[in-house]
Amino acid sequence: MPSSRTVLGQDGPVTSVPQDPSPVTTRPLDDSAALGALAERLAREAGALVRDGRPRRVDVASTKTSPIDVVTAMDLASEALLRRVLAEERPDDAILGEEEGHVAGTSGITWVLDPIDGTVNYLYGIPAYAVSVAAVTGPPAPEEWTVQAACVHAVADGRTWTAVRGGGAFLDGERLAVNPPAPLAESLVGTGFGYTVERRRAQARVVAEVLPRVRDIRRIGSAAMDLCTLAGGGLDAYFERGLAPWDLAAASLVAEEAGAVVTGLRGAPASTRMTVAGPAETVAGLVALLEELDADTDRP
Ligand code: LIP
């Protein structure tokens, strides 16, 4: 029985998945275009369900790491639809989803699903939430996987970001590129915050130091849309501690294929511990500041 690993979510372990015995490949897959087409179809179908099925008043179905880490019936319904289609179309693939966790596969491909990224925005009717679908190879963990194909579909306005490894990043079919590098003091920087008091207190300390050093901060409330906005030049850089694998998977490929570096601190890859993204030179300045601030810890 392969050993298992704990996959971390926003503020703590959310699921455990077995070590994936399949070889890690960083090369584009031969069928990445087909995976990309399926990722887009999945994200659009689930997005239509979320859009058309939104009641006038959305209720909280349950909570996870804290009373403000909410799950709605639509989070569950969206992921159920994604899993149903994958069971029909790709029965041998593994799945890692925000709401139902990990199901092993035999093909070496794992689908990483965020049924609604930006759930609090969905709950309040703020039009910044998306369905995020990625196909990865290798172990189902951001530090080790290779994202092969991705789609992020903004539910409220239909904007759809797509990418396959080595094939570029697109918004509604238009090729994307990140902004040229800018000094940190002239950079518009996106970020986000976790759901527990301890995490938020630490993040408040960090953002209080970052804010005077940058052009301004934007907090969209969906990591997937933060990274996709960066990919199209709507942000100069982005950082966040505590992203779950499903927050990060698809949009990290969109950002990378648009020319961004997506990384962690101290030479580590992007992960739940810290994700920083943007043009290489801008990221270098932001990483240096975040390392100085121990931003990859919950130090108060
Ligand atoms: C959200 C992330 C966002 C973060 C929020 C939340 P969810 O994911 O996309 O970047 O700041 O706290 O974690 O919970 O809506 O799927």
Q: Can you characterise this structure?
A:
- This protein has seven helices and 17 strands.
- The strands form four sheets. The protein has an eight-stranded mixed sheet with strand order 6-5-7-8-9-10-11-12.
- The longest helix has 21 residues, at 32-52.
- The model is unreliable at 1-6 and 18-25 (pLDDT under 50).
- The chain has helices at 32-52, 73-89, 119-124, 197-210, 223-231, 245-257, 280-292, and strands at 4-9, 12-18, 60-63, 70-72, 94-97, 101-103, 109-117, 130-137, 146-154, 160-164, 169-171, 174-175, 188-190, 216-218, 237-240, 261-263, 275-278.
- The protein starts with a strand and ends in an 8-residue tail after the last helix.
- It has two domains: 3-175, Fructose-1,6-Bisphosphatase, Chain A, domain 1, CATH 3.30.540.10; 184-292, D-Maltodextrin-Binding Protein, domain 2, CATH 3.40.190.
- It has 300 residues and is an alpha+beta fold.
- The structure holds L-MYO-inositol-1-phosphate (LIP).
- Residues 10, 114, 117-119, 192-194, 221-223, 240, 247 line the site of L-MYO-inositol-1-phosphate (LIP).
Sheet with the most strands? 8 strands, mixed
Globally, the shape reads: globular
Summed up, the domain count is: 2
Q: Specify the CATH homologous superfamily of the largest domain.
A: Fructose-1,6-Bisphosphatase, subunit A, domain 1
CATH topology of the largest domain: Fructose-1,6-Bisphosphatase, Chain A, domain 1
CATH class of the largest domain: Alpha Beta
**Count of individual beta strands:** 17
* Ligand list: L-MYO-inositol-1-phosphate
Q: Radius of gyration, rounded?
A: 18 Å
